[in-house]
Amino acid sequence: MIKRFLLFIFICFLFSKTINSQHSIARQWNEHLLEAIRKDFARPTVHARNLFHSSLLMYDAWAIFDETAQPIFLGNTLGNFTTNYSPISIPTNKEEATKEILSYAIFRLLNHRFKNSPNATATIEKLETFFSSLGYDKDFTSLDYSSDSYAALGNYMANKMIEFGLQDGANESNQYNNKYYHPANDPLILDLYEDNGNIDPNKWQPLAFDVFIDQSGNPFPSDTPDFLSPEWGEVIPFALEENDLEILNNGFDSYVYNNPGAPVYIEESNENGIEDPYKWNFALVISWSAQLDPTDNISINISPNSIGNTDLNDFPSTFKEYQDFYNFTDGGDSGKGHTINPITSNPYEDNIVKRADYSRVLAEFWADGPNSETPPGHWFTILNYVSDHPLSNKTFGTASTELTALEWDVKSYLVLAGAMHDAAINTWGIKGYYDYIRPISAIRYMASKGQSTDANLPSYNVHGLPLIDNLIEIIENGDALAGNDNEFVGKIKVKSWKGPDYINNPDTDLAGVDWILGTHWWPYQRPSFVTPPFAGYLSGHSTFSRAASEVLTLITNDAFFPGGIGTFDVKKNEFLVFEEGPTEDFTLQWATYRDASDQTSLSRIWGGIHPPIDDIKGRIIGDKLGKQAFSHALNYFKGTLSNQSNSIKSEMVNIYPNPFKEKLNIDSNHNDVFKIELFDILGKKIYSKKEFNKQSIEFSNLKPGIYFVKIYSVDGNLIFSKKIIKAYHN
Question: Which CATH fold topology does 650-726 show?
Answer without folding.
Answer: Immunoglobulin-like (2.60.40)
